[in-house]
Amino acid sequence: MGGFSELIKNFDKTRDYIRDFFIYGFKVRNEFTGKSSRTYDDEKRRAESWLGDFFRYDSTRRGKQVSITVDSGHINENPLYSAYYSKSFTDNDIKLHFMLMDILDGKLMNVREITETLNSTYGQLFDEQTVRNKLKEYVSEGIILSEKKGRTDIFTLSPDTAESFFSRYEGLEDAVKFFSESPEFGIVGNSILKTAGLTNDIFLNKHNYIVHTLEDTVLLDLLKIMEEKRFAVITNFGIGGKATETEGVPLKIYSSSRTGRRYAVMYLPKYKRFNSFRLDYIKSVRSLGVYGEYDDIARKLCRCEEKCFGVSFGERSGESAGGSFRMVLRINEETEGFVLERLEREKRCGSVRKIDRDLFEYTVLVFDINEMMSWVKTFIGRIVSVESTNKRITDKLYRDIARMKRIYSRKEE
Amino acid sequence: MKLFSEVYGAYFRCTERILSEGEVTEKRLREIVTQSAFRDSLLFIPEKLIPDKSGNSPWGLLRRSESGSLCSILSKAPPRIITSLQKSWLKAKLNDPKFRLFLSDEDIAALSQRLKDVRPLYNREYFREFDRFTDGDDYDDPHYREVFGTVLRAVRDNELLSLELISRRGKRITKNALPLRIEYSRKNDKFRVYCLTLPKREEYLFNIGRIERAVLTGKHITTETDLEEFFNRRRCEKPVTVEVSGERNAVERFMMEFAAFEKRSELDLATGKCHASVYYDMQDETELLIMLLGFGPVLKITGPEDFLEKVRERVEKQYELFYGNE
Prior knowledge:
A: Arc Repressor Mutant, subunit A; B: alpha+beta; SH3 type barrels
């Protein structure tokens, strides 16, 4: 097999490839820069092996284009979960996994007894240290329980089987099926289903950004740091691919169900401000010391959220400057109540008021007016006027409409 | 607690399935590998499990019987343990208001008690979904929970439902329908149910929050519904085609925002523009239209003609509102 393996040691490298195949379905082989063609071929073959039916090849003028095509609203299971089920292991790892579970089911034994039983029952010679290490690892994963008997550690298998959960709590099976596709660590729910031999055959998810699962390892590290109220250093690979390190205090995860982006919001003591970092650009997270003022700064963030339309905390000047924004919309009250309902449910920190017959005013005070503009444009066809303290932005909207008029002009055809 | 661990891996799971059968033929072993591991796993797993002529194999988990079949060396089927990571995930989900739709209050209390010493994997307060719609379903409402429970049971058991609901326009509707799948939208924070009405066999998508009454009829439908065909009937006839310019990081934004849609895309290196075809459910046409308009002039909708006409109409109206009849 020329050294090829379906399994991988490190998730990060694969994460980038899968993301590129999925998000940028238009890349061809030589556009995966900074990687050797052997690496590309191996990664592609692995991904293809995991994702099978979802892999697609298209011939384009630039060469063969590889993509992962998924109609994520109509699938039972996120196909990208497969990447998590591909961790490499040694022959001893798998032997010990099954043999230890067999030996320790309903029995209490110490390391010496376990090592001897491995030899006498299965004819497998392991040194005590190898067995001890595996037991320690499985205790931390909750597969094996340990207790002290005098000065000796005694081990037994955890009694928490999938059957003991699913047979005891009616409806738990459906709950796990539903949450196994949720954006927050759905992969863990999916692993429970796999453990129990079940599959989700009931639920579908609309506005489902399945690629989020690739950020789960980074997300888990960040949440642990938040729980412990610590500083962190994040290594970020931005659009240009250049690595940057940022030290700050992670406070919250912001996510958008509209754009599919997720962000880690951090407080940067050096600049005395909050900043948001795209989760999919964060390569790794390193935990540092405890931040003494964590609770104060977390409260401050909550107050700031009243003026945060999305994820931007604004700039002092330029396009991302904050201020007030006012927009007047024409909505027919009798026939277009659904538009008014949409405005109400999507207004976020703004407020809506009727100012005349069929005319409604939306006003808001935000950190970054520019951030609102793609939402504002969803009302194209109804915007009577816009005003704001950031004139550059409102002027840009007027120019955009003039450009769109030219783009969609019938005369152009 | 590790998320990326071989314990949850496809190879361990596949091996567990094989060992659970106690005794398998080589053919059966290969079948299990095909069903429960990756596409190319047949090239790797059997050679690790099947003993050679001297009875040895790298994993040493199977021995060959006199009849030639392969027997597990274990004394019983491997237990399926719920790990600490999985328990802490369950504990985190227990705090989600939607969890109450699935379990009774008594069972939730009992499960909470069982997991009392487990730390939740995450705290919900650390997440902020800033653009989620504010008129989501009320998961605490007893009537909603009851309707949800009935619909869920009907989906599970392929049971025909008698439904009474209020349409968006306020009209009362009654239907006999077979619910097929329950859909959740995180943007809307609402559950909806895909149904096939009988006897007309029309496809519907009902908001569970609009169902006034859902009654199990006791009639179980044994004929399987082809879901692919069901969704294909709801799918647009022609995809919307767009041209995304390289300005304002639009290509990246578009690819990310439309990642949830089935689409085909191609990049024109000479112009830096991305050409894409987006497929959608016909019921989502307006939602798609406003999503695309949100990109402004950096995205040009190029077809199909009827969709394009709706775009033109809105843009022209907007131009008039800003610039008058110039």
